[in-house]
Amino acid sequence: MAFTAPEESYKPTVIFFGLTNLLATFQAIINDILRDLVDTNSIANFIEIAIDLEGHDDIVKEVIKRMVENDLYI
Fold it and tell me: What's the CA angle centered on 39, arms 34 and 42, to 5 degrees?
């Protein structure tokens, strides 16, 4: 995991406290929040969320509503 600054890139020599298994934990949270939408094939999620074009506006509103309800932000 590297991060960039205007002058160059930096790579930490230790894992920051609290970031162990961050992506796996995030994916598990998203899976729980959106499980019924994934089961109906309305969306697919793997770190990013892909939404089916049919009923797009309603699905986007539902996803955003669920994110806000769970204190997550897009």
Answer: 75
For tokens 């995991």, name the residue: 1
CA distance 60 to 43: 10
Of residues 40, 46, 44, the one with CA closest to residue 23:
46
Given a contact cutoff of 8 angstroms between Cβ atoms, the answer to whether 40 and 47 are in contact is no
Judge whether 46 and 27 are in contact, CB under 8 Å: yes
Per-residue pLDDT tens digits for 24-70: 777 888 888 888 888 887 787 766 667 767 778 888 888 889 989 98
pTM summary value? 0.59
Our CA angle for 59, 63, 68, nearest 5°, is: 145
The amino acid occupying position 62 is E
